[in-house]
Amino acid sequence: MDNVFQLKDKLYIITGASSGLGREACKFLDLLGAKVIGIARREERLKELQDECKNFDYKVYDFINQEGIKELVDSIVSEYGKVSGMAYFAGVSDISALRSLNMQEAKKVFDINFFSALELIKNLYDKRKSQDLSIVLISSGSQLQSISSMSVYDSSKGALNALVVSLVKDLAKFGGRINSILPAHVETEMTAKAQEIRSEEYNQELERTYPLGIGNCSDVANLTAFLLSPLSRWITGQKISIDGGRGVY
């Protein structure tokens, strides 16, 4: 039982690997013995992560485009073998008032947050490329609230949740699973910068609304590893909120 969470025979793809939640997920999966392929735009950050891990490699790719995803997946399978799971952390935020929405920018948000995830899943949905595939999509805790000026971002994350439900039967045909994680406020490099310009009153109010306090990247990484691993073999089609109790406060 001591080795039940060892993943040394598993190959996982993690997008958005160069920072924040994706980076932490790579490090934790590597610690558990998995072979991890991180994908992101910033090669210098990926090289730094490679130095911190034992069994990590990377590919540089910008998910604003879908055209190169098939070649990306094929190159990973050719070099490393069949994929056991994929977690999609790649994403871009968008804060736009309804009156000032730019449709071209909105489409870019959907390209990165949704359409590239869909194309990646499409290309992994192949018995020649994956085995017992587990997919984890990173949505957002804002799905459970109404927040002004977040319509484009929230809609792109909501589309991921719809995909989780829609693809359950397709993936199950080959023993595959799909779930999404809805993180609430988590301390990352991005939120740390925002904290510096927020008022002290706002920061105190933010902490007060989380019974278990503000989350860390490791909290999401732990749940991601569980959902990717065989320990969650009977869990699929679920949208799992991780919010320190914020949703019921």
Structural summary, described in words:
This protein is an alpha/beta fold and 249 residues long. The chain has one domain: 3-Layer(aba) Sandwich (Rossmann fold). It is 43% helix and 18% strand. It contains nine helices and nine strands. The strands form two sheets. A seven-stranded parallel sheet has the order 3-2-1-4-5-6-9, sandwiched between helices. The protein has a two-stranded parallel ribbon with strand order 7-8. Helix 1 (20-31) packs across helix 9, helix 3 (69-80) packs parallel to helix 4 (103-124) and helix 4 packs parallel to helix 5 (151-166).
Write the layout of secondary structure elements.
Blueprint: E1 11-15, H1 20-31, E2 35-40, H2 43-52, E3 56-60, H3 69-80, E4 83-88, H4 103-124, E5 130-138, H5 151-166, H6 168-172, E6 177-183, E7 186-187, H7 189-197, H8 200-208, E8 215-216, H9 217-228, E9 239-242
Parallel strand pairs: 1-2, 1-4, 2-3, 4-5, 5-6, 6-9, 7-8
Helix pairs in contact: 1-9, 3-4, 4-5
Keywords: Oxidoreductase
Organism: Helicobacter didelphidarum
Protein name: 3-oxoacyl-ACP reductase
